[in-house]
Amino acid sequence: MTRAAAGSLEGRRVVVTGASSGLGSHIVRLLVERGAAVLAVARRTDRLERLVAELGGAPGRVAAFTGDVTSEGDARAMAAAGVELLGGIDVLVNNAGMEVQASIDELSVADFEGMWRANVLSVFLCTRAALGELRRSRGVVINIGSTVMARPPRGRFGYISSKGAVEGITRGLAVDLGRDGIRVNAVRPGIVPSELRGASEDEERARFEAGQHFGRQALSTAGRGSDIAEAVAWLAGPGGRFVTGSIIDVDGGFSLGLAETASA
Ligand SMILES: NC(=O)c1ccc[n+]([C@@H]2O[C@H](COP(=O)([O-])OP(=O)(O)OC[C@H]3O[C@@H](n4cnc5c(N)ncnc54)[C@H](OP(=O)(O)O)[C@@H]3O)[C@@H](O)[C@H]2O)c1
Questions:
Q1: Domain span at 84
Q2: Which residue from 17, 80, 125, 233 has the fewest beta carbons nearer than 10 Å?
Q3: Residues 69, 180, 41, CA angle at the centre, nearest 5°?
Q4: Residue 140 falls within a domain, yes or no?
Q5: Are 147 and 190 in contact (CB under 8 A)?
Q6: CATH number for the domain that contains residue 227
């Protein structure tokens, strides 16, 4: 009998939402490199197709599904595609999200609602749509929160509120679904260069390297999408078998909240 190498995700069937850019594409890359079969979900088909082409020679495999995670019909179709293309679902990664930054005076109702739909409603719809398969596989749900819940920055209350709800869903569902053998956890990324923050990954990395954010982190290295993907891979695999309801910070120590001076 051959034994899978440590860290291997061979045989794991994973659905990743928000896979067309940023953290989601890094999560897909790492999982496929570790041997998983992945359904990559987002609205931009061209981006998903590029990812599928890029990963052609990887140990695992990836298929694309174009859909809007705020639509109940699309969420159901996504779960059906997981069954059709992967043979079932062992892991759901609720990563899709968006942000509009504005103060309470300036944020429009449509933008507030848009954030809640993309960041919160999507987690409910996609998890419910995949539930039958997750029950069958005694699977795993991994939600992507944000370090803003630990250290709320100014002018982002709408986004912070939505990520607070993601943590609430994570803890509440961990309790509800534990008896079905389903684990539900959240990964809370720190500042990681991506398009969500209004700049390209390269621009964001350059900002980091120029030192704008280092002063607020314990580690003086910029976070990478692959750092978040490593935490997701661990939770998705056998190493995370006794972990549920946890909110895991992957943030270079950003959430510690560095004091300005050594004196109290
Ligand atoms: N980067 C950071 O520093 C950071 C820190 C903390 C938390 N996060 C969280 O990490 C997650 C990924 O963010 P990111 O930084 O990688 O941003 P990103 O590059 O903008 O990626 C967001 C992804 O979500 C997808 N998406 C958004 N709305 C969708 C919808 N209605 N239906 C389907 N897909 C949708 C987008 O795809 P389409 O546009 O193609 O649909 C895209 O693939 C988010 O939940 C975010 O809140 C990021």
A1: 13-250
A2: 80
A3: 20
A4: yes
A5: yes
A6: 3.40.50.720
Residue 122 three-state SS: helix
Per-residue pLDDT at 56: 95
Atom of ligand 1 nearest to the CA of 69: 32
pTM of structure = 0.95
Q: What is the pLDDT of residues 41-63, one digit of tens each?
A: 999 999 999 999 999 999 999 99
Smallest CA separation from ligand 1 atom 42, residue: 18
- How far away, in angstroms, is 196 Cα from ligand 1 center? 6
Lowest-confidence segment of 135-144, 241-250, 254-263 by average pLDDT: 254-263
Q: Which of 41, 98, 99 to mutate to test the pocket of ligand 1 (most atoms within 8 A of CB)?
A: 98
Instruction: Report helix angle 122-137 to 72-81, nearest 10.
Output: 30
Q: Please report, rounded to a whole number, the percentage of residues in the chain having pLDDT higher than 70.
A: 91
Beta-bridge mates of residue 184: 141
- 59 Cα–ligand 1 center, Å: 25
Q: Is residue 259 part of a domain?
A: no
**DSSP per-residue letters across 21-41:** SHHHHHHHHHHHHTT-EEEEE
Query: What digits encode the pLDDT tens for the residues 166-195?
Result: 999 999 999 999 999 999 999 999 988 776
Report helix, strand or coil for 209.
helix
Q: How do residues 190-234 score in pLDDT, each as one tens digit?
A: 988 776 656 666 776 777 667 666 677 899 888 899 999 999 999
- Amino acid 1: pLDDT: 43
Q: Which residues line ligand 1 (CB under 6 A)?
A: 17-24, 42-44, 47, 68-70, 95-98, 118, 144, 146-147, 189, 191-192, 194-197
Decide: 147 and 251 in contact? Cβ < 8 Å. Answer: yes
- Counting the structural domains of the chain, the total is 1
